[in-house]
UniProtKB/TrEMBL annotation:
It comes from Clostridium saccharoperbutylacetonicum N1-4(HMT). One of its GO terms (molecular function) is 4-hydroxy-4-methyl-2-oxoglutarate aldolase activity. Keywords: Magnesium, Metal-binding, Methyltransferase, Transferase. Its cofactor is a divalent metal cation; Mg(2+). Substrate binds at G98, E99, I100, M101, R121. Mg(2+) binds at D122. One of its GO terms (biological process) is methylation. Homotrimer. This is Putative 4-hydroxy-4-methyl-2-oxoglutarate aldolase. It catalyses: 4-hydroxy-4-methyl-2-oxoglutarate = 2 pyruvate; oxaloacetate + H(+) = pyruvate + CO2. The keyword Nucleotide-binding does not apply. Pfam families: RraA-like (PF03737).
Length: 232
């Protein structure tokens, strides 16, 4: 098997109802339920204007910097409910896709979204469209089509590991990765956190929130509270 030039056509996928349930929870609440170790780096930002959160299953693509040949194969394979997640080894020199590829995925394939660890182009039009696309920025310089590359293998995107079929949840805050094998357990904890956060927001707005934990934690961590003016 030629490692570096592999296209796996099949993935293990989570239950569709499980995926749908995550779409109703803010990414931040789900991230808290996972120990806050699941969010893609903040370099990867929302570039379009979606009307809802992005929530789907990962169709992963690995490529060398600035090359999108394997990504074009993923375009052929993509189905409704997929989120294409593209690993670019952190390269920022070439755009990975533009409006033509975007519209094929959004209008014809009707996938859930795209996550690219690299730049895109045609931002003047893409920024107005509703399918979520996350990228690191823009550049007019286009990609190469030489390979190597792989589809549906484990990748690193935004410094986070992504496996084919993992649940990808994105909103205005950014993108998180939910391991498919742990998703059911994470969902229940995330629901509890989301409900608790709603109560905390209301308490904060009314000033009834209990802030005593701050001084208690500072004391436990060895902070010294000094009732004097600091003089340099």
């Amino acid at each position: 098997m030629p490692v570096g030039n592999r296209i796996f056509l099949k993935r293990e996928l989570p239950d569709k109802e499980l995926v749908k349930a995550f779409s109703e929870i803010p990414a931040a609440n789900v991230a808290d339920a996972m120990g806050r170790l699941c969010a893609l780096h903040s370099d990867i930002k929302l570039m379009s204007s979606p009307t809802k959160s992005m929530c789907g299953v990962a169709l992963t693509v690995k490529a060398r910097p600035g090359d999108n040949l394997a990504l074009h194969k993923a375009l052929n394979m993509a189905e409704e409910g997929d989120v294409i997640v593209f690993s670019n080894e952190g390269d920022r020199s070439q755009s990975i896709m533009g409006e033509i590829m975007y519209k094929y995925l959004s209008d014809f394939k009707k996938i859930e979204g795209i996550v690219i660890d690299g730049p895109i182009r045609d931002i003047d039009t893409i920024s107005k469209y509703t399918m979520p696309i996350y990228a690191t920025g823009t550049t007019p310089g286009g990609p190469y089509k030489e390979g190597p590359g792989e589809v549906n293998v484990t990748i690193a995107c935004g410094r986070i590991a992504v496996n084919p079929g993992d649940i990808i949840l994105g909103d205005a805050d950014g993108v998180i990765v939910i391991p498919k094998n742990d998703a059911a357990q994470i969902l229940e904890k995330a629901k509890t956190i989301a409900a608790g956060d709603a109560a905390k927001v209301a308490a904060s707005a009314s000033g009834t929130v209990n802030r005593q934990w701050v001084d208690k934690l500072l004391e436990e961590k060895g902070f010294e509270i000094i009732d004097e003016v600091y003089r340099a």
